[in-house]
Amino acid sequence: MGRPVSMTGFGRGEKSSGRGSWIVEFRAVNHRYLDISIKSPRRFIGWEERIKKEISAFHLRGRIDVYVNFSDQGIETPRLKTDMQLARQYLTCLQEIMTELSVPGAPDLAMLAANRDIITPVDDEAGTERQEELWPTFREALHGALAECQQMRQSEGETLQKDLFVRLSDFKEKIDVIEQSLPQIIAARENSLKERLDNLLSGVDIDPVRLAQEVAILVDKTDVSEEIVRLRSHVEQFKSFLELDEAVGRRLDFLVQEFLREVNTIASKISNAETAHISVGMKNDLEKIREQVQNLE
Q1: Per-residue pLDDT for 66 more than 70?
Q2: Could you tell me the pTM of the whole model?
Q3: Which of 153, 295, 179 is nearest to 235 (CA)?
Q4: Contact indicator for 21, 15 with CB cutoff of 8 Å
Q5: What is the 3-state secondary structure (H, E, C) of the chain?
Q6: What angle (nearest 5°) sits at the alpha carbon of residue 137, between those of residues 136 and 142?
């Protein structure tokens, strides 16, 4: 399975046998966790866990909607049974609700039939065996849908990967600009502090060595060299994750948060108009990167 892959995709699988025809449609969108919803004929509700297990071999995250359609060919219609005791209890409860809430009318069959536990298929070994005979054909249809969806996810993943590399390159250029201008920013900050202190301390006798030390401390608070080093490290780590043959969406999302933390620190340390403008551009880059990352598995 190629990586990175998108969490968004669609697939359709069809398979027929002498006992029936299957159509399986598969829709996947981004989601924080793996959330699978299966809509299938009622008689196959017992397959849900098996279907989820098949899907989880392909998907680690995402909202997955599976639609299963089966056309019978010589398959006996399943026998049904009615739980009359449960039906009476539901009827009593509905009557109590309608009386208490002053709802006009009376409970009808539609209300009772809405509860799936009142009318259920008869469990018998022969019926179970017939369903098991259908599983291999259904599984082929399911895997056909999964394969088509996976192809779409890989194609979109490649597009997202290329886009992220471009956006990361733009972000890195802004880091370079800040790093190149850092000596001038520090020098300007030092001169500005000295001028302000000279005005404030005019006529005050103070140790020049102590004054120089205080200025150096204030100037050091403007130095963002450590933040730049960490940003460069994050950039390289981000690139390496994009090249991995495994799910990296969560790790990339975490790195984007770390990027933003460092950029905010730089913006707060340097009260420089040009740097402030660049940091705003970096935040815009990170927001676009985050949007793309959240589509990756």
Answers
A1: yes
A2: 0.69
A3: 179
A4: yes
A5: CCCCCECCEEEEEEEEECCEEEEEEEEEECCCCEEEEEECCHHHHHHHHHHHHHHHCCCCCEEEEEEEEEEECCCCCCCEEECHHHHHHHHHHHHHHHHHCCCCCCCCHHHHHCCCCCEEECCCHHHHHHHHHHHHHHHHHHHHHHHHHHHHHHHHHHHHHHHHHHHHHHHHHHHHHHHHHHHHHHHHHHHHHHHHHHHHCCCCCCCHHHHHHHHHHHHHCCCCHHHHHHHHHHHHHHHHHHCCCCCCHHHHHHHHHHHHHHHHHHHHHCCCHHHHHHHHHHHHHHHHHHHHHCCEC
A6: 95
Which pLDDT score, from 0 to 100, does residue 43 have?
83
10 vs 8: CA distance, rounded Å: 7
- Binning pLDDT at 50, 70 and 90, where does residue 125 land? very low
Specify the pLDDT at position 289.
Answer: 96
Buried b (16+ CB within 10 A) or exposed e, 203-235: eeeeeeeeeeeebeeebeebebeebbebbeebb
